[in-house]
Amino acid sequence: MGLYLTEEEKEMLEGKHGKSTQKAMEIITTLGNIYGAKRLISVSSVQIAGVSYHNLGEAGLEYLSEMAEDGKVRVLTTLNPAGMDLEEWKKHGISEEFAENQQRVIDVFSKMGVITTCTCTPYYIGNLPHFGEHIAWAESSAVCFANSVVGAMTNREGGPSALATALTGKTAEYGFHLEENRVAQVKYEIKVELKNTDDFGLLGHVIGERTRKSIPYITGIDKVTTEELKSFCASIATYGGVALFHMEGITPNITPVPDKVEIVTQEDLDNARKSLDDEGAEIDFISVGCPHASIKEIALVAELLDGKQVSDGKTVWITTARPTKDMAKKMGYYDIIEKAGAFLVSDACCAVAPLKGRFKRLLTDSAKACFYARGKNDFKTTIRTIEECIKEAVT
Ligand code: F3S
User: Fold this and answer.
1) Residues 155/165/238/191 CA torsion (nearest 10 deg)
2) Residue 291 CB–ligand 1 contact under 6 Å
3) Confidence class of residue 87 from pLDDT cuts 50, 70 and 90?
4) Distance of alpha carbon 294 from its chain centroid, rounded?
5) Which of 144, 352, 365, 376 best tests ligand 1's pocket when mutated (most atoms within 8 Å of CB)?
6) Range 364-386 average pLDDT
7) Burial of 195 by CB count in 10 Å (0-12 exposed, 13-18 middle, 19+ buried)?
8) How confident is the model at residue 57 (pLDDT cuts 50, 70, 90)?
9) pTM over 0.90
């Protein structure tokens, strides 16, 4: 049986709702046919990745501009980080030329009705689905958070497929939109005490590399913060492509417990840390906020930086969403951080900003940031707690 389309969906495909909607429906039905979907379903929110001009280039911008000619989003749609802070880019060393091009990208999304949030933590700032809700998100850490921590249902969309869903409100029903594909496959018993966001990033590294496409069922963790979960989600998605996990007593999805068991020990975590700790260059870049920092993390950074000064030769970026930055301004955290010589950067992050060649070694609490610092920017890396990162910044 092929892909069933409603009358409205057929009309979209025939171009009766405009050229962009037609192109968008072609993408969705093609994906539906490839993955053997029986029908399309409505989604309530979309999160689009591929926003930095650094990654998109002129070709990507041209595609978006074509879609924006008559395309308008039909559901709540937010954006992943861009390549710069949209307001304070100049003081972060971003060139005029890049800023101009990045703004063109933002303007095109805005024209389509996208809320230009530019964050990988949409769930912190108003794009928060509920349990069982079908959505179409693209950012891998947010997808993993939505599926696992919230219990919403999404595949990991690419930039064009997420936009296509935003323009039609529809996605093909396959993958993680179906309950039968969300069952745990391997049990991971955690025999190690996890204390901070960096530990959870390392755990994501260990399980991600081991489990790959198998859905993990994790036991042995009694207590966890949303900051630790966002770090874990980012890491397990980066190192294993994992878009869904179950954590006993923590996450809301119900699943049978798998028979296959793997053990995670302190030695596994130590090895993961060693694999992310490079030698051979001075730390000159410190970044916290991958995924984007919560207001709680910003408050902690402000407390640690209060009355101190970032050392010469070091640059500190705390990256977050713009509404969180605004909140930090109201609370006085922004002033403390900036007075110390660090930057509270919104809308962007250390992986998608054009930073190649500017630094040699990154210190961060994020295992995901280490991956991109190495792969995209050729930086050496070191992973530590937020407290240790800030201590190093002012030493
Ligand atoms: Fe977010 Fe950038 Fe990290 S998009 S998850 S802060 S690499």
Assistant:
1) -40
2) yes
3) very high
4) 13
5) 352
6) 97
7) exposed
8) very high
9) yes
